[in-house]
Design a protein that fits this description.
Length: about 230
């Protein structure tokens, strides 16, 4: 009976020893047993810093600039800028770069050199944080074609290619010809040559290039030479 009591006492002592061991385990040791990714210390300050580094820096305004559109008549243009007269009569200068797209009807790969004063254009621009306007694109807005009549003496003629006349002001005017160009009266078409007196009918070309004649009227040689706009 005494032996049984001794065994029971030893058993109770062993149980108490195990329980006390679990209770007094160091909190720091338990924390260190957790898996921590290499190079990352699990502290509130380090985590906050890491999240802050991942967030993009907040910038004031739009870093890409504000898009604006302007319509007006060209008063000046060069490689660096274009100046418009707006509808309200005010003047506005907008910068040009080598990335500015120039769009002109019927003209491919146009450059600023094709832009002329008095052309009506629409400019797509960007205003940066320094309040500077730079053009992304300049598009010429063609107006209703205005027919022009020039009377003069033929100095050069090539069928369906071009015709050049000398007008009353002694200036030479060259017009492109196509297969659609009409010659009137048709029965005098064989008289169309150097020295013939003619009236050229052509719409004004917004690109500033040689206008295309839509009609050539052959006159009797005794008519006076004059220029009609």
């Amino acid at each position: 009976m005494k032996k049984i009591r001794i065994l029971i006492v030893f058993a109770l002592m062993a149980a108490l020893f195990l329980m006390s061991t679990q209770v007094f385990v160091s909190p720091s040791a338990a924390y260190n047993n957790k898996k921590t990714p290499p190079g990352l210390l699990k502290t509130p300050g380090a985590v906050a810093t890491q999240k802050a580094e991942k967030r993009p820096n907040k910038q004031t305004g739009n870093p890409h600039g504000k898009h604006e559109n302007y319509k007006g008549s060209i008063t000046a243009v060069d490689a660096a800028s274009i100046t418009l007269e707006l509808k309200d009569g005010s003047s506005l200068s907008i910068g040009l770069t080598d990335k500015t797209r120039i769009r002109i009807p019927s003209m491919k790969d146009a450059t600023y050199l094709a832009l002329k004063t008095d052309m009506t254009v629409m400019v797509q621009a960007i205003r940066d944080q320094d309040d500077v306007l730079t053009a992304k694109a300049v598009a010429v807005i063609p107006g209703k074609p205005t027919k022009m009549h020039h009377v003069g003496i033929v100095t050069a003629y090539e069928a369906e290619v071009s015709i050049t006349i000398q007008a009353k002001d002694d200036l030479l005017y060259t017009f492109a010809l196509t297969e659609e160009t009409k010659i009137l009266p048709i029965e005098k078409a064989d008289q169309l040559a150097d020295g013939a007196l003619v009236t050229i009918i052509a719409p004004r070309d917004v690109t500033g290039g040689d206008p295309t004649a839509i009609g050539i009227v052959i006159h009797p040689p005794d008519n006076e030479t004059e220029t009609i706009d």
